[in-house]
């Protein structure tokens, strides 16, 4: 009887421990004490594969968020079933109102060999809150703290992988060129202390570590952080609560844990767009992908520490978009290409947009290609002065069909050398126009 009672008590004890472990919603490694996961680096952003309730998705690894968020949920609802939902509202960067979302509990997340069988997530309805059009690849959501809190995480920007380590068995390698500094957490988001030099004056700054931002550095203007004399107004990005605009400039110097970067890009978002972000005491801005990618990083959330080692990106110059164009992947368009199997050849280009020439249909094959549309256009920019308009669809860039490029390859052309000539063929509501301009460095 006593043995049976002991076994019963052991069973109850183990059941309580297991239940508590599930209730906490922690990630654990199914095999071994570490796992390596490859990622894509797109416009300084880390894209990793994530499986949710059996659905294969792509997420941004974003240190600037606490709970996972899924975008454009209605388009995913057939593939992705989520559990136990309730309606809530989320607030983020931007001048708009909070956005409606579903909070869902008890979801199964799998990232490499890491699994969490009781994960909360937020599903957003608004189709405009979607990273995919801006990055040109499928992006279904973002994940940050809930994954990072359970591991020591290596982020290798050189070879495009993250490595998850069990913190109980992790042993740091000897690294004479590495520098470590403490992380401070507010609302499950990591902050570090750096130093900036503006107009010859040094200022200590408290920055959110934001791997979900593609810029280098954002600073919040105040009595001590003054915008440099040279700047230009620009679109900075889109937050949960709308578009963010502000000023772009250059900093004399930025220092972090003894590493020093000069002539770096900096953006100063309009105060109306960051009222929510400025509620964090003493926060001065964000440290984002444009700087983070210059290091190989070890994030040790369990011990409130980050370790940095500069990599081959460290000495690369900082570039700005010199065209004034913000492009987006906006649906598809039909293209026709020479069908070489027909035996008919052409003397001009091998691929033309529909409606551009009169030929026999039998000499062509038809297919769908991405439509790259201008969604933001900076005032007084070379592109705006040349006559480009919002909604223009780019067909040809520098005499090459645009569908032969990725979205990021086209955008990269706008970051070229000062004075470089850009030649575009665009479609404006069914009319094709040729537009030329030269890149202009405003800084």
Chain-wise SSE layout:
Blueprint lengths: L1 H23 L3 E2 L4 E5 L1 E3 L2 E8 L2 E7 L7 E2 L2 H4 L8 E6 L8 E13 L2 E11 L7 H4 L5 E3 L1 H4 L3 E5 L4 E5 L13 E4 L1 E3 L2 E10 L2 E10 L6 E3 L12 E8 L2 E15 L2 E11 L15 E4 H4 L2 E6 L4 E6 L14 E14 L12 E3 L10 E14 L4 H4 L7 E5 L2 E2 L5 H7 L7 E8 L2 E8 L5
Parallel strand pairs: 5-10, 6-9, 16-21
Antiparallel strand pairs: 1-9, 2-12, 3-4, 4-5, 4-8, 6-10, 7-8, 8-9, 11-12, 11-22, 13-23, 14-15, 15-16, 15-19, 17-21, 18-19, 19-20, 22-23, 24-25, 24-26, 26-27, 27-28, 27-29, 29-30
Short description:
With 443 residues, the chain is mostly beta strands.
Overall description:
The chain has 443 residues and is mostly beta strands. The protein has 3 domains: 23-165, Acid Proteases (Cathepsin D, subunit A, domain 1, Beta Barrel); 179-292, Acid Proteases (Cathepsin D, subunit A, domain 1); 325-438, PDZ domain (Pdz3 Domain, Roll), CATH 2.30.42.10. Helix content is 11%, strand content 46%. The strands form 4 sheets. Strands 14, 15, 16, 17, 18, 19, 20 and 21 form an 8-stranded mixed beta sheet that branches. The longest helix is centred in the first third of the chain and has 23 residues, at 2-24. The termini are far apart.
